[in-house]
Amino acid sequence: MDPVEALRRIAFLLEWRGASPYRVRAFHTAADAVRDMPPGLVDAQEARRLRGVGPVTAEVIAQASIGETPTYLARLEAEIGPAATPGWLLVEASEGDCHMHSDWSDGGSPVEEMAQAARALGHRWAVLTDHSPRLTIAHGLSPDRLRQQIEVVADLNTRLGPGFRLLTGIECDILEDGTLDQEEGLLARLDIVVASVHSKLRSEPGPMTTRMVAAVRNPLVDVLGHCTGRIVTGRGRPQSLFDAQAVFTACAENGIAVEINCRPERRDPPDDLLRQAAEAGCLFAVDTDAHAPEQLHWQSSGYARAARAGLRSDRLVTTWAADRLLDWAAHPGRRSMTRSS
Questions:
Q1: Buried b (16+ CB within 10 A) or exposed e, 235-247
Q2: Distances (CA, A) of 235 to 18, 229, 332
Q3: Helices 299-308, 3-16: crossing angle, 10 deg rounding
Q4: pLDDT digits (tens, 9 = 90+) for 213-253
Q5: Quick one: pLDDT at residue 40?
Q6: Average confidence (pLDDT) over 112-123
Q7: Using an 8 Å Cβ cutoff, are 106 and 131 in contact?
Q8: How far is 88 from 79, CA to CA, in rounded Å?
Q9: Which CATH class is domain 94-340?
Q10: d(CA 285, CA 224)
Q11: Ramachandran angles phi, psi of 328, nearest 5°
Q12: Which among 212, 216, 213 has a CA at the least distance from the CA of 193?
């Protein structure tokens, strides 16, 4: 076990236990800091000089660099036992990610860099989901820019070669009346549409429920993104209020996947709503919502939460092969075939 693997494993186990998101993110940050270091002995003091590495993560790095199981990791594994194993198996079964951004909207990296990072992680596919027009603060894509991006993705796939495919997509705003913030004909050309609420997050539960149910009943939608819109770090943001039973029942009836958003500051949906969506029979997409290549590693946290909720790979579209995913997204009968697929 090398330092990066040890740090990622600790982050996963901390997520499994529901530890502070700051703590989980600290281990991912340390893994990012050490990933480009050459193999071999790393002294703890040397590790401390790396940006984002503190005394605890430095000791993990030092111990793992000489082939030892870090004390911190061994203690976590002993305390948790085999209970977290199903989550780790889901991590290993992951095929792709339905939600990531590039510098075409509010991401920090070019499309090709995000695709290459997803492939390096072992994904067979990933969906490029930059924002839609009305989210101007995130430089959302106008119809013309989205058409251009579709062409860019097609060209990139010819150069990426076999074994990985970048899929076209969008994170499309759900407008106040439940309609989608993009031309319907253009949305129909995309492989995957993630629909999310980004405005009027503190609406009354009634209007918010109506808004969300209208969106998930739209046959162009595939995934309901970060359903509560909450932020659990810093000054935070309270979760939106809506009739979860009505929304998740609509998702299940219409074959829509509920996103398990892996961003540490989101953990969306919260555990109680995640269990409620599972009981409603929903499918799920374990998505990083990555805005930079290193954030693609956050997906393990989502799988920890999925396993803790009792979900298996047949309910997680991000463990499906690309052909199965695309058949689900495009199949006109998916509304009635979801549970048996």
A1: eebebbebbbeeb
A2: 20, 14, 43
A3: 40
A4: 999 999 999 999 999 999 999 999 999 999 999 999 999 99
A5: 87
A6: 97
A7: yes
A8: 16
A9: alpha beta
A10: 9
A11: -60, -45
A12: 216
| Residues ≥6 apart with Cβ < 8 Å to 75 | none
Spatial separation of the C-alpha atoms in residues 248 and 267, rounded to whole Å: 17
Phi, psi of 122 (to 5 degrees): 105, 0
Give the domain ranges of the chain: 3-83, 94-340
- Give me the CATH code for the 3-83 domain, please: 1.10.150.110
Residue 136 scores a pLDDT above 50? yes
pLDDT digits (tens, 9 = 90+) for 266-315: 999 999 999 999 999 999 999 999 999 999 999 999 999 999 999 999 99
Q: Are 127 and 96 in contact (CB under 8 A)?
A: yes
Contact 264, 224 (CB under 8 A): no
Per the structure block, which two tokens stand in for 335? Answer: 């509304």
267 and 308 Cβ atoms separated by less than 8 Å: no
- pLDDT value of position 332: 56
- Smallest CA-to-CA distance from 53 within 22, 72, 27, 14 is with 27
Q: How far is CA 137 from CA 100, 106, 107, 205, 252, in A?
A: 17, 8, 12, 26, 32
pLDDT, one tens digit per residue, over 65-93 is 999 999 999 999 999 999 999 999 999 99
Can you tell me the distance from the alpha carbon of 83 to that of 164, in angstroms, rounded to the nearest whole number? 32
Cα 74 from chain centroid?
27
The amino acid sitting at 51 is: R
- 71-79, Cβ contacts within 8 angstroms, sequence gap of 24 or more: 72/10, 73/6, 73/9, 73/10, 73/13, 76/10, 76/13, 76/14, 76/17, 77/13
